[in-house]
TrEMBL record, chain A:
Chief place of localization: membrane
Record-level GO cellular component terms: plasma membrane
PROSITE patterns for this protein: ABC_TM1
Segments traversing the membrane: 31-53, 100-121, 133-153, 159-177, 214-239, 265-286
Membrane topology: Multi-pass membrane protein
Family the UniProt entry places it in: Belongs to the binding-protein-dependent transport system permease family.
Protein name per Swiss-Prot or TrEMBL: ABC transporter permease
One Pfam family in the UniProt entry: BPD_transp_1
Keywords of this entry: Cell membrane, Membrane, Transmembrane, Transmembrane helix, Transport
TrEMBL record, chain B:
Segments crossing the lipid bilayer: 9-27, 99-120, 132-155, 184-206, 241-267, 287-313
GO BP, sorted A to Z: transmembrane transport
Domain ABC transmembrane type-1: 95-306
Family, similarity comment: Belongs to the binding-protein-dependent transport system permease family.
InterPro entries the record matches: BPD_transp_1_N, MetI-like, MetI-like_sf
A single GO cellular-component term on record: plasma membrane
Superkingdom of the organism of origin: Bacteria
Native source organism of the sequence: Lysinibacillus mangiferihumi
Name of the featured protein: ABC transporter permease
Main location: membrane
Cell compartment(s), UniProt: Cell membrane
The keyword Hydrolase appears for this protein: no
Amino acid sequence: MTQHNNETVMMESTPPTGIQVVLREFKKDKVAMFSFVGVTLIIISIFITAWMLDQEEVLKINLFERYTEPGENGYILGADEAGRDVLGQLVIGAKNSLLIAIWVTVIANIIGIALGIIMGYYSGIVDNVMMRIIDFIITLPTFMIFIVLVSIIPEYGVFELVMIISAFQWIGVARLIRSKALSEGRRDYVSASKTMGTSDFAIMFKGVLPNLSSLLIVEFTLSLAGNIGIETGLSFLGFGLPPSTPSLGTLVSYARNPLVLAEKWWVWLPASLLILLLILGINYIGQAFRRAADAKQRLG
Amino acid sequence: MWKTVVRRVLVMIPQLFILSLIVFILAKQMPGDPFTGLITPETDPSRIEELRIQAGFYDPWYEQYYRWIANALQGDFGQSYTYKIAVSTLIGERALNTFWLSLLSVILVYLLAIPLGMLAGRKQDTLLDKIIILYSFISFAIPTFVLSLVFLFVFGYRLMWFPTSGTVDVGLESGTLTYYWNKIYHLLLPAMTAAILGTTGIIQYLRSEIIDAKTQDYVKTARSKGIPIRRIYTRHIFRNSVLPIAAFLGFTITGLLGGSIFIETIYGYPGMGELFISSITSRDYSVITALIMLYGFLALLGSLLSDIIMSIVDPRIRID
C-alpha cells in the first residue's frame, strides 16, 4: 500500500484530474467495476433489442400460448396470461422504465440544482421562504399524492407521469445543493468575482456550479436508482405507466394474481430480478463516485 | 425543552392547515360525491339532488371547506360509500391492524439491526463485516414490492411456512391463546419483510458510530483500567452508540406506515395502506382524503417525536 502510494507520488507531480481519480476508484473496487460494466452492458443491450423489437408483435394476444413454460415453442422466458412473450415485454418494459427514470432524474436535477444554488447563493430571505416550502413538502405523504394525482388527471400519459414524479423529486437535490452552495458562496473566489463586477448569474452557474460537479454526478446516479424504484412501484400498483406502455412494474404486477405468483414464476420473477439488479448496480456505481468525490473516503 | 415542543406543535398547525386545503382541493377535483354512496335502486334521483342542495354541495368552495374541516376536527370525516359506514370507524379498525403490524416490525428492526450493526463495527473489515455491509446494501436497494413478492413466493407458496393472506384463520374463537398466536403467525411474514427493509439506516449508522468510538479517549481509559474488550463493547461503547438510534424511532414508525401500502396490498393484510389502494380503485373519496390527512399528521408527529426523543437522549442538543 505505502509502496504503491510512493510510486504514484513519484510518477505524477501534478494532482490527478477528476477522471483519473474516478478511474482509480473503480480499479480499486472490483464490485463497482463489475457493476459499471454490467449495468452499461444491460442498458445498451436493452436499448438495442428494444429498438429492433416490434412492440405490436410482442403485445399481440395469442391465447393458444397462454402460460407457455420457459424454453417451449421458442419462448425463451415463457408467455404470460394472454400468451405474450415475457422476454419481449421484459426488454420493452425495461426500456420504458429506464427512459422514464432518466427523464425524471434530469428534470428533477435541473430544477433542484437551479433552486438549490439560488437559495444557497442569496441565502437570507429567499432561502428562508424556500426552505419553509421545502420543509412542508417533505412531510407530505408523497407516494399517496402520486397515486391521487395519477387517478384524477383525465388525459393521463407518460408525460404527465414524468411531471408528477419530478414535481416532488427535485426537493432532495435542492436541499443538498443548497447546503453546499451556502458554504461555497462564502469562499474568496466568489467575493473576488463580485468585486470584479461579475453578474450574480455568472457567479452562480459558471463559478459555483462547476465546483459542485462531483457532488452532482453522485446525486444524479443515486437519484436515478431511486426513480427506477418509484416508477416501477407505481406501475406495480397500477398507477404508473398506462397499459399501452408496459413497464417492468407492469410485468411484476401480474404477480398480484395469486395463481401467477404461486405457479407461473417466469412471468414476474425475471422483471423483479432485473429491477433489483439495475437499482443495486446503479447504487454501487453511485457509491464509488461518492468515494471518489470525497478525498477522505477514497480507496485508491 | 417544553418550550421547543410547544413551538413545534404550533408550527404543525399551519402545516396541517395547508395540507388540509391541498387535500380538499384534490378531493373536489375527483368525480362523484358522498351521496353517490347513498344511491340504491329504490332511491329517487330528485331526492338525491335535494340532499345535495341540503348538504350545501353547490355552496362556494370556502364554505364547504369550512364545514368539512369543522367536522373533521370533531372526528367526523363523513361516510365511506363503498362500506356504508362512518369513515372514522372504518379507518379505526384498519389503523389497529396496521398498528400491530408496525409494532412487530419495529421490534424486529431493532432485534435485527442492533446486533448486526454492532458486529459489523466491532469486526471491521473482516469477512463478517463485508457480508453485513452487502446485506445492508441489498436491503437498501431492493424495492418493497420485489422483496414482498419473493418472500411470499418462497415462504408462503413454495415452503408453505406462513399463511399467504389475511389477519387470522376463520373459525378460531376470539380471545383464546390459539387465536392470538394465529394472529401473530399471520403478521410474521409481512413484519419480517418490513423489518429487513427498515434495518439499513440503523446498521450503517451504528457501524460507523462504533468504528469512531474505538479510538475515543473513554475507550482507551477503559482498556487501560483492564476492562475486558467484550465488556467495553457491551457496556461502554454500546450505551454511547445505541442512544442516538432511539431518535430514529419516530421516523422508523412513519416510514413503516408509509411502506405499508405495498406490504399490505401484497400480503392481503387489511390495514390502512390496503384500504387506501382499494379506496382509490373504488373511488371512495371521503376515505382517501381522511387517510391522506392522517398520514400527513403522522409524518409531522414522527419528526416531532424524533426531536423530542433526541433531546431526552442527548442533552447537548437541547434547545430552549
